[in-house]
């Protein structure tokens, strides 16, 4: 609210108080007139009793710094504190409405006075009887003086307000500048390579949110750096292990001048096996790099998911039959979706192969397909050893293995689930796992029916 608006507000409030005070005093006078009778207030025929009554009216007019007129039911002026219009008639639109019992609001007379009309009611009967009117003309001299004073002081108040605003703005600017300087110094320290440092969270809400966001970015960077270092370490270890095995086998052959053919063939088969393993690791690494969701290109087409799963199960069934594992496919409905057939086949193949590899002999693998109006769902359930609860968050990370010894025995590289997750994310989908040790695992894939690029 501006200063001028505030002055107008206080001016109106003062006038309202003046009106209420006048109405209250006139109401008291109205009761006295009804009790004493109009004849005691007729200034044209003064008597001893009427003189005292007229004195009360004049005293009220003096208190209000204005003028009081008393009008009977015939609109005749009985009393006028200015003693000008006694005996005359006053018929106006306001007096007619007031005499009919209608409420008449006050009105201004020039800039200095208000006219207030109040009916004189006899409330002794069931239906109030209007006996006449009190017209009070009230001076606004004090209210106008107050307004003039406030307007005179407006420039001073505006100047004080501007000075206070400037001082406050300077203080806030200094606080903000200091906060920015502290933040800049802390960022310089972090940029110099001290990633263990973080930003101090400021008191201002905006700076607090900014510092919190920077700290989240720094923590995310730390996690990525740790993941990168762990990935490099795992890649080095996984690539080095087959090479070390091949070197040991080759050195063993070289150390024996006359090697039997059977032993030579056995060693060479082992070397070939290690080469295949090395090749598989490199192939999976290249696949994972190509599957990077920020770089990979999808060849989207309409694919019947039912046929895709049937082809995969036919391919994997011979491997499962060797261990007595039964593979079952259950399709709730025909599902046609917009996907990259090659990449989705790779992801589903990894899940089904894992369900067979890490299953118990004579176990079972159940694959089901369902859909709603927006997504289709693939569920792969096995009866294997299950995944410990504390490992379920990490199984989609690169080179992570729950049982490293068993993974190497089955020929796993630790990259299959990472590739699967990347394929699902590229399709704007999600994958989750439910597992309990000794009771098997269930992987659930959810992918949109219509691809959103």
TrEMBL record:
EC number(s) on file: 2.7.13.3
GO MF annotation terms: phosphoprotein phosphatase activity; phosphorelay sensor kinase activity
Subcellular location(s) of the protein: Membrane
Transmembrane spans: 157-176
Predominant place of localization: membrane
InterPro entries: BphY/WalK/GraS-like, HATPase_C_sf, HATPase_dom, His_kinase_dom, HisK_dim/P_dom, HisK_dim/P_sf, Sig_transdc_His_kin-like_C
Enzyme kind, highest EC tier: transferase
Coiled-coil spans in chain: none
Protein name as annotated: histidine kinase
């Amino acid at each position: 609210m501006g200063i001028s608006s505030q002055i107008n507000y206080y001016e109106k409030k003062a006038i309202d108080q003046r009106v209420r005070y006048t109405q209250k005093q006139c109401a008291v006078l109205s009761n006295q007139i009804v009790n004493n009778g109009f004849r005691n207030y007729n200034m044209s025929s003064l008597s001893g009793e009427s003189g005292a009554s007229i004195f009360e009216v004049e005293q009220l007019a003096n208190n209000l710094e204005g003028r009081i007129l008393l009008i009977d039911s015939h609109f005749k002026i009985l009393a006028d504190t200015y003693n000008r219009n006694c005996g005359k008639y006053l018929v106006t639109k306001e007096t007619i409405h007031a005499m009919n019992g209608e409420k008449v609001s006050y009105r201004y007379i020039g800039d200095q006075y208000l006219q207030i009309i109040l009916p004189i009611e006899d409330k002794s009967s069931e239906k109030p009887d209007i006996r006449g009117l009190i017209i009070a003309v009230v001076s606004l001299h004090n209210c106008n003086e107050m307004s003039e004073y406030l307007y005179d002081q407006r420039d001073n108040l505006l100047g004080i307000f501007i000075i206070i605003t400037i001082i406050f703005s300077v203080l806030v600017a200094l606080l903000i500048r200091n906060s920015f300087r502290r933040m800049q110094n802390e960022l310089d320290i972090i940029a110099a390579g001290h990633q263990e440092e973080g930003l101090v969270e400021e008191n201002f809400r905006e700076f607090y949110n900014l510092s919190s966001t920077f700290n989240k970015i720094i923590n995310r960077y730390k996690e990525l750096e740790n993941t990168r270092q762990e990935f490099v370490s795992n890649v080095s270890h996984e690539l080095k292990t087959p090479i070390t095995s091949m070197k040991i086998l080759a050195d063993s052959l070289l150390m024996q001048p006359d090697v039997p053919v059977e032993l030579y063939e056995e060693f060479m088969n082992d070397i070939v096996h290690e080469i295949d393993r090395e090749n598989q690791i490199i192939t999976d690494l290249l696949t994972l790099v190509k599957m990077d969701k920020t770089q990979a290109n999808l060849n989207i087409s309409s694919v019947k998911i039912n046929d895709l799963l049937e082809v995969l199960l036919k391919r994997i069934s011979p491997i499962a039959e060797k261990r007595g594992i039964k593979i079952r496919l259950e399709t709730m409905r025909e599902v046609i979706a917009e996907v990259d057939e090659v990449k989705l086949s790779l992801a589903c193949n990894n899940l089904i192969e894992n369900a067979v590899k890490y299953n118990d002999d004579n176990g079972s693998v159940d694959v089901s397909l369902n859909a709603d109006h927006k997504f289709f769902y693939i569920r792969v359930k096995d009866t294997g050893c299950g995944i410990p609860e504390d490992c379920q968050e990490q199984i989609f990370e690169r080179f992570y293995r729950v049982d490293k010894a068993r993974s190497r025995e089955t020929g796993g590289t630790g990259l299959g689930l990472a590739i699967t997750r990347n394929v699902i994310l590229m399709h704007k989908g999600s994958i989750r796992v439910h597992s309990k040790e000794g009771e098997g695992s269930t992987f659930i894939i959810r992918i949109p029916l219509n691809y959103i690029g």
